[in-house]
Amino acid sequence: MTTRTPATEPAPAPAASPSLDDVTGWWSTAVSRIRPGEILLRGYPVQQLIGQVSFAEQIWLMLRGDLPTAAQGRLLEAALVAAVDHGPQAPSIAAARMAATCGTGLNNAVATGVNLLGDVHGGAGQQCMEVLARLEEAVADGAGPDEAATHLVREYRAARRHIPGFGHRFHPRDPRRDPLLTLVGQAAADGDTPGGALRAGLALERALAAGRPRPVPMNIDGATAIVYRELGFPPELGRGLFVLSRSVGILAHAWEEKAAGARIKGPLPRPLLPGYEGAAPRDLPPGERR
Amino acid sequence: MTTRTPATEPAPAPAASPSLDDVTGWWSTAVSRIRPGEILLRGYPVQQLIGQVSFAEQIWLMLRGDLPTAAQGRLLEAALVAAVDHGPQAPSIAAARMAATCGTGLNNAVATGVNLLGDVHGGAGQQCMEVLARLEEAVADGAGPDEAATHLVREYRAARRHIPGFGHRFHPRDPRRDPLLTLVGQAAADGDTPGGALRAGLALERALAAGRPRPVPMNIDGATAIVYRELGFPPELGRGLFVLSRSVGILAHAWEEKAAGARIKGPLPRPLLPGYEGAAPRDLPPGERR
Amino acid sequence: MTTRTPATEPAPAPAASPSLDDVTGWWSTAVSRIRPGEILLRGYPVQQLIGQVSFAEQIWLMLRGDLPTAAQGRLLEAALVAAVDHGPQAPSIAAARMAATCGTGLNNAVATGVNLLGDVHGGAGQQCMEVLARLEEAVADGAGPDEAATHLVREYRAARRHIPGFGHRFHPRDPRRDPLLTLVGQAAADGDTPGGALRAGLALERALAAGRPRPVPMNIDGATAIVYRELGFPPELGRGLFVLSRSVGILAHAWEEKAAGARIKGPLPRPLLPGYEGAAPRDLPPGERR
Amino acid sequence: MTTRTPATEPAPAPAASPSLDDVTGWWSTAVSRIRPGEILLRGYPVQQLIGQVSFAEQIWLMLRGDLPTAAQGRLLEAALVAAVDHGPQAPSIAAARMAATCGTGLNNAVATGVNLLGDVHGGAGQQCMEVLARLEEAVADGAGPDEAATHLVREYRAARRHIPGFGHRFHPRDPRRDPLLTLVGQAAADGDTPGGALRAGLALERALAAGRPRPVPMNIDGATAIVYRELGFPPELGRGLFVLSRSVGILAHAWEEKAAGARIKGPLPRPLLPGYEGAAPRDLPPGERR
Q1: Nearest by CB to C253, which of D11, D22, D29?
Q2: Can you give the residue range of the structural domain that contains D263?
Q3: Closest by Cβ to C102, choosing from B19, B120, B264
Q4: What is the pLDDT of residues C236-276, one digit of tens each?
Q5: What's the CA dihedral at C187, C188, C192, C194 to 10 degrees?
Q6: B275 domain-assigned
Q7: Looking at the record, which segments are called Disordered (chains A, B, C, D) (predicted)?
Q8: What is the pTM for the complete model shown?
């Protein structure tokens, strides 16, 4: 046990007297091996993958280390297709559009948008996956799904916390919910996925609706969380996959703005000016400060 | 004509006295329409796209405004699959891996890597598309492809400039060249793509090899440039598509690092220290400066 | 109480039928008022500030809303001077240096480095400020500083957690500790700052050293945490101020790399290659996948 | 001469068989030397700088390698103070404010804003410095400043190009111009700076006004360009210094938004929706695509 704490500085030493092997080992990876004339991705030569696997299957391979089944690949593809865009009212899209008018590369505009997919804007799917994992665990321990869901909803309400992945302040019913749940329901029925996360998510939706005038249907974060858990992804990769998906919309919007040629686009059309609620105009106190 | 110049400030006004329509119009887009209960992507309801189009087709739809043919979709998919990763020796990958150890979200790590795909690291494909466009234009004006290519190579050599998309300081022959050229050759032979960019690229490769002991084969930037031009993408989107593709490898590497739990990973294992070639140790000149 | 949860989408509406005032109000700020011919910063016309206040005083004004006393300004200046750089072994510096070789603007290189100052790399000062705040509160409630510090150290050790701001895996004694503590000690003695955070920090240092063969002296995060709390900054701005300070070193390093003209600099000099610990080379399973 | 071209891949090898010295040399720097217990910044021990140099002087030292004179330090300080903010109508500020509502760290919000200070939004100062350098060179070659400026204005007008650093679409007269020019005029009169860039800038301002109903006064980019050239900074660092300055405003605005607690703030208050000018709603063509 130690109380020595990491400062804002580099990482610990591998050895007192490092060798060149320590140096190359410092950057070791299981993702790819690049040598002159060779590009192995998770063990497969890249030339065998090109033209043979879909982009979604390639994403799976790179993140998971092995190829998906055809059914898994299709389900992943559907979730990636679903979340590409939510228009310029999403700050990730708006920021990328503004970046594209400031004289940066298109890559910088995409990076700007992706940078905004933080815990609040991009993290709900990841958080919902963690909630589903808890429910699945409770069921594995013998609880009924509805019982476990009711218990969890009660706990969240007592703590005045929101359950991530349900309800939408914009859509009364998220149009992406039904097609995703249909696909994952079919996959589970066919035995292509375990089905536990789907059952947990539906139980949670029922528990949330109980005793309320209107249901609180799953949103895109909830529906993709079910898909990604059925496919066995860890929660953090839920956000990672959302990043890959939303990057498509971010790029499309940034490109539209760049192609239109706007320059230094702010949030308001002129001559509208932001409101001001600060100190009244005042003079610097007398006396030479310097 | 005017010499008034943009300063580092916001964009011009739409009207002297704006209305709410000017405000919503300021953020107008042709990419998507989001209303309560509705997500239209390029006119298509999102629920019709989920499960029906591949992720690569969705990318095409979002960037181009219409769906690709099946052949176009497959060719795009192959190019996206090809460029996902080049290992931690690529700074985009290394930077993302380091970011993942600093306590940021996975989205911030991906944004960090994407931010590095600038003119030099990510722009060669875009630049090669511009070169191909010049050659195609010369051919459209009546020149033979080899003649036009020889002329262009001579011009670049005279200016001591590199032709982007050819040669690789790492791979004697880029393993991604052949499978991509095979696929685009098949597509052109089948009439699925026009074939002009392919002919221009091959003529350029021949012209570059003429009179040299070793050929200078196309690299990934050149091969994908041919594919993207055959598919009709503007050059700037060449970089955009590379960003989408490389984001996959960036995410896979960032996730590997995050899952391994390293903290504040610098480029060198300790106790190795960066070299120093600066001023010798010295004392601050005497005299109270403040 | 509600269980409706935010999805990855925009923020709530101000009113059912917004007016232009709602639009300008949406972007309201107390930081500055910009009108044609006028730039008010926290109420002061910018032309009165130029040449009259130091850059550190300007930083204080912008973040706090009022000008500091001369003593406060000097103390802030010292802390900003202290943390500018820790060399390329810091990932924020290394990532910015790599970015500068990839054909991006210098601003993108700085942004890349700043993006890495996350919870782990840039957050220790902020976290230390929270710890100091707890101790100060305990003292305000009647506890002695040493008693409160000993209790807190015991609590952290029981939870096997590190106390942020103390110890350094690189420096046996951080050379920035002593000059910063001397300055803040003088300020407290002169009545320019309250002194409570300094007393809390020193008590914590003593409590950490008790019963150990070697002390665990404050590092830069701990020393600046004391300064920033003595000056009344909230913990989150501890990270913000570190960002402003470290940006200087990030810029200096990015510029050095850019001026030297390196292109696409990876972490290792060639021909060194990253190690590989992944799947052995393998062939794609037979069977047409597409 | 070679036609081998860089691909989007890492940098060239230092040697066929590298040693550990090549590895540490790969990361060599003249900016700082960090060893256990030692932090040298441009040769000075950090503990000597803390409390002795101002933040602006530290910035100079880090970027230039030596300490400024007191007069140089004050002039740099004035320019840094001048450019900190231009309100949320600047996209760099607006994007950072939006980022702060998305659940990212304050460092990520600052990085987001800085990332937008590209060629158009942050590059005008840098470009103006290049124009001033051309004029100074012409004067050094024997031309009169007004003659050279008139020639340059004619050339730009013929090419229908803007001269960066003059005019402002927002301010009829930028309030930051006069105090900065007063200070740099005093410095030049006192012999603290050479004066050539100031004379060039004023000649350019006169040439731009000649024959026009209204003058086209220097804006902040022009005024700081004069200051930075008088101080001997290379043009690219003009953008670098603007980044350091504007980071202060970006941080102040991001913090204001974060402290207010908004979540996922888009550009428009609801229920306002972005306009739509895309394809009419349509159905996916029949036929199974998958």
Answers
A1: D29
A2: 84-267
A3: B120
A4: 999 999 999 999 999 999 999 999 999 999 999 989 999 99
A5: 150
A6: no
A7: 1-20, 266-290
A8: 0.94
